[in-house]
Amino acid sequence: MSRAAVLTGIGAMVPPREVGNDAFAERLATSDEWIRTRTGIRKRHMVDPGTSTSDLAVEAGQRALKSAGRDQVDLVVLATATPDYPLPGTAPDVASRLGLDHVPAFDVAAVCAGFVYALATAAGTIGAGLTDRVLVIGAEAFSTILDPTDRGTAILFGDGAGAVVLERGPADAPGALLGFDLGSDGSMADLIMIPGGGSRQRSGGAPPDADRAWFTMQGREVFGQAATRMAESTRTLLKTIDWPVESVDRFVGHQANVRILHAVSDLIGLPRERAVVHLDQVGNTSAASIPLALAHAAATGQLLPGHRVAMSAFGGGLAWGSAALVWPDVVPG
């Protein structure tokens, strides 16, 4: 592509309230050691009452715009599985609160793969000449959809938001998104879902069932699918852009479980130490996961200008996707 989408700014935020593993010990008959050894998570951040996904998205968006030195964009794409309302979409409200009046704005719903899907969508609009600058945000208040009595999900997720600014530029510029690989398999949608509240349940004429309004996940099956699909997608992407596996400096996978990150690294033949790990501090933040990990790695020196970066995510749908770029010289906002 002579007209590429180039990452020029990044911002991230998590709510101030930290929740350590000990908070779940008595209520869910678990322990800090049990959670750490099985997931790698030490703590997560959760919103306070009255704070929503849009609040997180606005803050992360402001920081990304500041990082890029911009106050205007042509489009806002928000990846989230926890919109403020079932409708309307949350992105227009976020755009308005950022002072981006009348720009197009829409949500992308691909759960934990949402940020990669949003990146691909935004890059496509730039490549097609529809936009020159796009703000891409991944934001979640995931704690609001978790059953507090379900040990299989309550301990895993946290809240937060990450955002990047993409701008039109040459394909050989640092930060240019070099390629994507996307996929889905709807035959296994029941592995990750909220079964109640949608048109399928409502069309039966029954009122929404509170017991079916919580997020559900079949953890064992999801683990295997996540590792396999992310590895396959990453290999396909690297082949497409002609990057040998050993040339990848950093692998930024969806931050769900450290064992998944290690499994993907092993499957693609990449040393485990090249996988960025941020979930120990924030848990699984769904669509916010990858931009939060990117911002953290850049801020702490794990990610340096010139590093070859492969990203991959997997989530409900089932949906998965990967993207790659050479990391630019940007300072997280």
UniProtKB/TrEMBL annotation:
Subunit text: Homodimer.
Entry's free-text remark on domains: The last Arg residue of the ACP-binding site is essential for the weak association between ACP/AcpP and FabH.
Chain's role: Catalyzes the condensation reaction of fatty acid synthesis by the addition to an acyl acceptor of two carbons from malonyl-ACP. Catalyzes the first condensation reaction which initiates fatty acid synthesis and may therefore play a role in governing the total rate of fatty acid production. Possesses both acetoacetyl-ACP synthase and acetyl transacylase activities. Its substrate specificity determines the biosynthesis of branched-chain and/or straight-chain of fatty acids.
Involved pathway(s): Lipid metabolism; fatty acid biosynthesis
Primary location recorded for the protein, binned into one broad class: cytoplasm
Location within or outside the cell: Cytoplasm
Domain Beta-ketoacyl-[acyl-carrier-protein] synthase III N-terminal per the UniProt entry, residue ranges: 106-186
Entries under NCBIfam families matching the protein: fabH, PRK09352.1
Pfam families associated with the record: ACP_syn_III, ACP_syn_III_C
Protein name: Beta-ketoacyl-[acyl-carrier-protein] synthase III
Entry annotation: catalytic residues: 112, 254, 284
Family: Belongs to the thiolase-like superfamily. FabH family.
Beta-ketoacyl-[acyl-carrier-protein] synthase III C-terminal domain boundaries: 240-327
EC number annotated for this UniProt entry: 2.3.1.180
